[in-house]
Fold:
Amino acid sequence: MKRFRWTTLLLSMSLLLPSAPEIAQADANLHIYRNESGQIHTITGYLGRFQGDSESARALHALQLVQDTYRFTDPNRQFSYENSHLDEYGLRHQRLHQRLNNIPIFGRDVLLHEMDDALVGVSGFCEPLTPNSDMPTVKAEEAIDAAQEAVQNPTPSEDLSADLVYYPTGDQANLAYLVRVNWLGDEPGRWTVLVDALDGSILAKINNIETSDKSVQTTMRSGIYYLIDESRPMFEQFGSSIRTYTFQIGTQSQAQLTDLDNIWDSPEQSAAVDAHLHAGRIYDYYLQHFKRNSFDGLGSPMRSAVQFGHNYANAFWDGAQVIYGDGDDQIPTPLSAALDICAHEWTHAVIDTSAGLLYTGQSGALAESFADALASVIEGRDWTLGEDLFPVGSKQTALRSLAEPAAYGQPEHMRDYRTVEEDNGGVHLNAGIPNRAFYNFATRIHSREQAGQVWYLALRDYLTPDADFSAARAATEQACAVLYGPNSQIAHDLATAWLSVGVE
Ligand SMILES: [Zn+2]
Structure:
């Protein structure tokens, strides 16, 4: 994986993507990518040079280079600088967040890609929006009440906060309060609710918890062994560990798991041992193959909790830990028994701390799909998800398949895309389309692992929170160009993989 100079990269990129429209008078290597609605989500090509003293000044200056294309008027007032990171291929990625009237716009980040002081790409939707107001008429406390009512929060909490944002619909920006409501219980919730700041109505509510379907490293203290793994590099560098707890079939309090002889063989321990071992394998995979130390790349502790609730046939990342139920009649196995399910949930943690894909509509389906794709890469065995949860002879044999989404009720081509209300706008449903694109790509190039590298890099450096399928295609193509060369056979195979599921 040699370091490319942007000129080589861009020259070949233009050959790779003949269908992309070009700016007539500009550099022939410049490409502007739009989705079906005509919105720009990606620009690649030489766009000019960075200037300025600080990181943020340079980023804001660079935005002026694409100001006319995106039609924004004053980058200094419309964007706030978030962070930047230099990748292993010599590209620096600067993240900015869009604002209007000094209020952040929900889900709207823009990424600037820099090489050798040149702006060589922009990712993100950032065309101008028209605000409906800049003054809320609803009080924050009223918005919190409305949000709690909207999600039927069974344990109203007094320490919720409501932050003003703009929520985009079409080219309008709606002034809204963003309220986050989280709880554990029989039906746990992790909601993001957007309440109209002018009339108190609910503009959107997103449940970030999965909604639809479905040698042990320990530590001894005072003669008792705990499911605490301090053997990984994260411990030496950051003092953090992999820890596994149990809810003991309840939903509120967690206990540490202990054993006196360090032979973890009782039936109650098996779910916890599985969660613990799988977290360790997932940690190792992310570190060795993606150089990502723990889910956030910062070596943070990886905490799991098993035996959540009674007959709870689900698993989810709650923002701080991965929680597993013991299953039910349909899924008769504790969910931590399946490595791919564990890897799917931990990849949600990776997504939350990288692209931050919003768990609704197409960006939510992308979150589901990237979690499935990387889970299949980490497991490295088959194209189905959750097959280990079903004993031999069961009627159902898996939860989903990347090879045959339709066999599990998912669309696998854009012509079958389903617009639905439930499941956050069909995030588990429409994930079948990008899942099939990933399968097409990995099988065409005969390497699940290389395909995984492209998907991971797209997730880390090229996707923004409100990305759609079209933007995901462009993001994976940019990642592929950096990794394997823009005019490589792999890059052509990737384009074919997306085209064959109808994503332009
Ligand atoms: Zn998921």
